[in-house]
Amino acid sequence: GESVGLHLPTLSVQEGDNSIINCAYSNSASDYFIWYKQESGKGPQFIIDIRSNMDKRQGQRVTVLLNKTVKHLSLQIAATQPGDSAVYFCAENLGIQGGSEKLVFGKGTKLTVNP
Amino acid sequence: EPEVTQTPSHQVTQMGQEVILRCVPISNHLYFYWYRQILGQKVEFLVSFYNNEISEKSEIFDDQFSVERPDGSNFTLKIRSTKLEDSAMYFCASSLVRRGGEQYFGPGTRLTVT
């Protein structure tokens, strides 16, 4: 079936360390993946996305890695800051050819950055 | 930076009452969505809307739910007869592309059904 899950519900890191948040997906037909950040009381905020024809994509302080062989997605945050504390969700979509518009979300990982 | 807005931020209603949640998508976007998030759970897709009609809906989106774009800027979600289990955060989103593209989310409306 189609589902997206996260390995760890919580992650605590020291300020300045690098953070890695993981996500497993089960639908091998998914073509597009997004990482969202959700702060308390706010809606999901786009961080970075990646298509299935790529293995890695970098943004500002963030990198997303996609391993299609094991259906695994990760978000790496460099030099984590207190402002990075939030819940992080991965989401998948079947993409342009997939015939579905919905994003399927994982349960979320709560990242806490300790000063 | 353009953003999706939603009103109200919090709605309290009694079971059986009708509620309308309102959204103003980003002005040049063509595709609109509603999602919900029950406390502590995943964000779940409800419905997508394009060209004044529903293009996709989930099994959650039953006959109690309806969506409408009453004018050129607003996008609404109506729940005709609310149930306790409808209590959740409801997020509106919009996008430029239909599939395989970023969906921009609003801040959400917290619906509490008593």
Please give the radius of gyration of chain B in angstroms.
13 Å
Average pLDDT score of chain B: 94
Q: Output the CATH class name of chain A.
A: Mainly Beta
What's the number of domains of chain B?
Answer: 1
| Count of helical regions of chain A | 0
Main sheet properties of chain A = 6 strands, mixed
- Give helix % range of chain B: under 10%
* Shape summary of chain A: globular
CATH architecture of chain A: Sandwich
Strand content of chain B: over 45%
**Element-level helix/strand string of chain A:** EEEEEEEEEEE
Give a quick summary of the entry:
The complex is a heterodimer of chains A (115) and B (114). Chain A has 115 residues and is mainly β. Helix content of chain A is 0%, strand content 51%.
Give an account of the 3D structure.
The complex is a heterodimer of chains A (115) and B (114). By secondary structure, chain A is mainly β. Chain A has a single domain (4-114), classed as Immunoglobulins (Immunoglobulin-like). Chain A is built from no helices and eleven strands. In chain A, a hairpin with a 6-residue loop joins strand 4 (32-38) and strand 5. The model of chain A has no long low-confidence stretch (mean pLDDT 89). Helices cover 0% and strands 50% of the residues of chain B. In chain B, the strands form two sheets. In chain B, strands 2, 4, 5, 6, 9, 10 and 11 form a seven-stranded mixed sheet that branches. Chain B has a four-stranded antiparallel sheet with strand order 1-3-8-7, with no helix packed on it. The mean pLDDT of chain B is 94. The N and C termini of chain B lie far apart (37 Å). Chain B is mostly beta strands. Chain B has one domain (5-113): Immunoglobulins (Immunoglobulin-like). Classes of the chains: A mainly beta (115), B mainly beta (114). The interface between A and B is medium-sized, with 29 and 26 residues.
